[in-house]
Amino acid sequence: MNAETYADKASNIFVLSDSFIRIKELIDDESSTIDDISDVILLDPALAATVLKLANSSFFNYPGKIDTISKAVLVLGITEVYNLVIAYFTTEAFKAIDANSKYLDYFWLRSVDCALLIKFLGTHLNVANAERLFILGLLHNLGELVVLQITPKLIGECVSSDTAKPPWQKQREVLGFTFGECSAELLKLWQLPYGLFAPIRYQDVDDVNQYNVETQLLYIAKRVMTKTHVIKSSKYDELIDKTLLDELNLDVNTLAQAVDYCDLERLDMLSILSPGAAMVF
């Protein structure tokens, strides 16, 4: 099976709720108002609570208190609230997976770390609305859960702690595609924006220098996360193209600062999106 086939099978198992579909329709409709979007979010108390927790977290560092969904949409913007909605419904959709809880906790730990790392790097480089990059990191590896659900026996074969053959290369060898490519296919079937799934699809290409800054930052954040959690003995220059770091004016010290930021923010974010992982951590 190729990545598209895996994603197609998974899309029948991991389904976004009707509330998400309605919110997406409203956001796509230019005539919709903030109140229209807020009213639909409020129909799902758990979603509303999660959006408010995220909006008031140190992640956004808003100086005042955001105590209503309408204010969240007004202050953060429709696109950012939409990303928070995607984050919530994605984690909810994958609760249906048949998997060991410790495995899932470790998966979301790595995903949240990648999300925080890319957000830090985007902020450091003054990328506009860098918070939006968080969703790329959070969803970058959903294909791992897809493969785990569809062909669980192959997951173990995709594991690698060798810099000579890092996980994404091992995935190509075993599956013929990467988890990132499978993630992108699922997000495409969910009809999420191209600007969201394209960087995820191309996060492991060899010539990432030719792609946009979102793809480049995801490439870097994913590899920093890999060094932190997967290939701990590796060095950054074994995983990351130094030419790209030079072009973006990033260095090892900046990557270390990103890891420090991640260490500070990880527990708060996990407690909102994946409480089980927060307890383990």
Write the layout of secondary structure elements.
Elements: H1 3-11, H2 18-28, H3 34-42, H4 45-55, H5 69-76, H6 78-93, H7 101-124, H8 134-139, H9 142-150, H10 152-155, H11 167-175, H12 179-189, H13 194-201, H14 213-229, H15 236-239, H16 242-247, H17 252-273, H18 275-280
Helix pairs in contact: 1-9, 1-12, 2-3, 2-6, 3-5, 4-6, 5-6, 7-14, 7-17, 9-12, 12-13
Short description:
The protein has 281 residues and is an all-alpha fold.
Task: Write up this protein.
The structure is a single chain. This protein has 18 helices and no strands. The chain has a single domain (3-280), classed as Hypothetical protein af1432 (Orthogonal Bundle), CATH 1.10.3210. The two termini are 35 Å apart. The chain has 281 residues and is mainly alpha-helical. This is HDOD domain-containing protein. Residues 13-206 form the HDOD domain. Pfam families: HDOD (PF08668). InterPro entries: HDOD (IPR013976), RNase_Y/CdgJ (IPR052340).
Gap between N and C termini: 35 Å
Average of the residue pLDDT scores? 93
Summarize the amount of helix as a percent range: 55-70%
The biggest beta sheet, please? Answer: none
* Portion in beta strands: under 5%
SS summary, helix count: 18
CATH architecture: Orthogonal Bundle
Structural class: mainly alpha
Give the radius of gyration: 18 Å
In total, how many domains does the architecture comprise? Answer: 1
And the CATH topology?
Answer: Hypothetical protein af1432
Q: How many strand segments?
A: 0
Please, what is the CATH homologous superfamily? Hypothetical protein af1432
CATH class: Mainly Alpha
Outline the low-pLDDT stretches. none
Shape: globular
Task: Give me the strand/helix succession.
Answer: HHHHHHHHHHHHHHHHHH
